[in-house]
């Protein structure tokens, strides 16, 4: 995977120059010596935006002269490795959120690359999003235990970073996984944690809690949750009807 190899600014210039078959002297000019270019490429000198703009202009001119469809922006030679990683990971995660015709191999490959680089460059926000996104795909594919592992990893970083809304979404998704695994007690616990963040739709939480209590045959608790849902769609009304049928006469009287 060549795209997880992150070049320094100088290495990027050298790679572009070699790609176009240019020598350092071909890029040198009145205010930019061949020695300066050599030192920059070897990491012995930094570059400012003025010189980077000059280099990008010269490179784009050379590409045009060679009839190549190739352009490079000045900031490509200014950005740090960490900035490049942010750009790459953001692009990969965006593709995974909107995969189009991409298959699961491409999706998981992009998430893996994002996890690898964000971990290497200490980008905890991107790392958390990568784990969360992979958890979603694992959940969709029915790999529930693996999904829990990845959601848990993402959750640790969301808590550390103080991202309460994403923390709540993580709790909620973990609860849904436990529900699918038929661990209804644990599911209810995580639905409660999701609700405690005040960042997750309360109606959805109540519905899932009602479902969980229904599966546990705790019909009174299921009913109390379903009764607190304000806007009841067809699924909620069907569950409410099933709960009502299951309630014993004594339980009905108590309510």
Written description of the protein model:
- By secondary structure, this protein is mainly α.
- The protein folds into three domains: 7-77, 434 Repressor (Amino-terminal Domain) (Orthogonal Bundle); 81-182, Serine Threonine Protein Phosphatase 5, Tetratricopeptide repeat (Alpha Horseshoe), CATH 1.25.40; 201-255, no CATH class.
- Helix content is 71%, strand content 0%.
- It is built from 14 helices and no strands.
- The protein has helices spanning 9-19, 24-27, 34-41, 49-65, 81-97, 104-120, 124-140, 144-161, 164-180, 184-196, 202-215, 219-227, 234-246, 249-254.
- Helix 5 (81-97) packs antiparallel against helix 6, helix 6 (104-120) packs antiparallel against helix 7 and helix 12 packs antiparallel against helix 13 (234-246).
- It is elongated, with a radius of gyration of 27 Å.
- The model has no long low-confidence stretch (mean pLDDT 94).
- Residues 13-49 form the HTH cro/C1-type domain.
